[in-house]
Design brief:
The protein is mostly beta strands and 287 residues long. 1% of the residues lie in helices and 54% in strands. The strands form 4 sheets. Strands 1, 12, 13, 16, 17 and 18 form a 6-stranded antiparallel β-sheet that branches. The chain has a 5-stranded antiparallel β-sheet with strand order 6-7-3-2-11, with no helix packed on it. Strands 4, 5, 8, 9 and 10 form a 5-stranded antiparallel β-sheet that branches. The protein starts with a strand and ends with a strand.
C-alpha cells in the first residue's frame, strides 16, 4: 500500500489562475494536450520519467525508485526492463509493467517501488544496493533496443535527503500519480502532486478538476514544496537540486465524493503546458 504524504512547508510562489478555458467534457481532447515529446521515427524506446529517493530520519529509512518508459508498440508481446548498475559493480535487470496507452501507438511502461525498511518490498531488496547509473532495455520481435542516454547512461543520484528526478526532453509537467491520493480512507482531503521542469522562477500551475464527471469544472492552485514528508514518520525530502521541482495541490472535497478527475496546467514564459494523461485525464478514487 502506498505511503501517504503530509505537506510540511510550502512557499507562496503561486497564484490562482482563472485564465484557463473551461475544459468541458467534449472539449478535453482539443484544449488539454499532453506536453511530452514523442518518440522520433527512428526511436523505439525512450525514458519518460524517473525518480529516486533515499532519506533517513530518526533511525528510519525511506527508499523509493520510479521508472516510466515510452516504447513503440511493435508487438503485443514485449519486455521493458531497467538495466541498473549496483554498488558492487554488477548490473541487474528490473522488469517494468504496462501502465497505459500513449500517443501514436506508443505505450507507457513503469515501475514504482518503495523498498525502505519495514516495507513489504524490503526483504526482496535487502541486498539491492543501487548505484546511480541505469539504461533501458526493450526486447520485442527477437530484437533488443536500448536507451542509454546517448551513450552516457542515465545517472540520477540519490544521496541522503535528496530527491533525484528526471523528465524526458519536452516533458515539462508530469503528474505524480504514485503519491496523489485521498489522504486517508475517511478524509475528504485530496493531495495531488506534480513534477515540474523549472523553466522560470515565475510560474502558475493549476489543477483543473471535477467531482461530478465534468458536469462542473473547478480550479485549484498548486504550491511549490520546499520540503515534504511521509505520514507520521516525518521522513523529510527536499526538492532536487537539478532543474525540476515538486508542487502540490490540496483539496477538501464535499462529503460523499468518492472520485475526482483532473488535468494539470503549467503556465510559464508566455506558454501553457498540460498533462491530461494523454487526453484521458487522471482519476483518483477514495480507498
Amino acid at each position: 500500500m502506498k505511503s501517504f504524504i503530509t505537506l510540511l512547508l510550502a512557499a507562496a510562489l503561486f497564484s490562482c489562475s482563472k485564465e484557463i478555458e473551461k475544459p468541458e467534457a467534449d472539449q478535453q481532447n482539443q484544449i488539454a494536450t499532453t506536453s511530452s515529446a514523442r518518440l522520433a521515427t527512428n526511436e523505439n524506446v525512450k525514458l519518460f520519467s524517473a525518480r529516486t529517493v533515499a532519506a533517513y530520519y530518526s533511525r528510519s529509512y525511506i527508499r523509493e525508485k520510479s521508472f516510466y518508459v515510452e516504447v513503440a508498440n511493435l508487438s503485443p508481446t514485449k519486455q521493458v526492463i531497467v538495466h541498473h548498475k549496483m554498488t558492487d559493480g554488477t548490473w541487474k535487470d528490473f522488469p517494468l509493467s504496462y501502465v497505459k496507452q500513449g500517443e501514436n501507438n506508443a505505450e507507457i511502461w513503469g515501475w514504482d517501488i518503495n523498498y525502505g525498511v519495514g516495507t513489504p518490498a524490503a526483504a526482496n531488496f535487502a541486498t539491492a544496493a543501487f548505484d546511480d547509473q541505469f539504461v533501458i532495455k526493450y526486447i520485442v520481435n527477437g530484437q533488443t533496443f536500448w536507451d542509454n542516454n546517448g551513450n552516457k547512461n542515465y545517472n540520477i543520484s540519490s544521496p541522503l535527503m535528496t530527491d533525484g528526478m528526471f523528465l524526458q526532453n519536452g516533458l515539462n509537467i508530469n503528474a505524480d500519480t504514485y503519491h496523489s491520493t485521498f489522504t486517508n480512507g475517511t478524509s475528504n482531503n485530496v493531495q495531488i502532486f506534480a513534477d515540474v521542469r523549472n523553466l522560470n522562477f515565475n510560474k502558475v500551475i493549476t489543477l483543473v478538476y471535477t467531482t461530478d464527471n465534468w458536469a462542473t469544472v473547478k480550479y485549484a492552485p498548486f504550491n511549490y514544496l520546499q520540503q515534504y514528508a511521509y505520514g507520521g514518520s516525518n521522513l523529510n525530502f527536499f526538492p532536487t537540486a537539478k532543474a525540476f521541482e515538486k508542487w502540490s495541490a490540496t483539496l477538501t472535497t464535499p462529503a460523499g465524493v468518492t472520485n475526482i478527475k483532473y488535468a494539470i496546467s503549467y503556465k510559464v514564459n508566455g506558454q501553457e503546458f498540460w498533462d491530461n494523461n494523454f487526453t484521458r485525464n487522471y482519476s483518483i478514487n477514495r480507498q
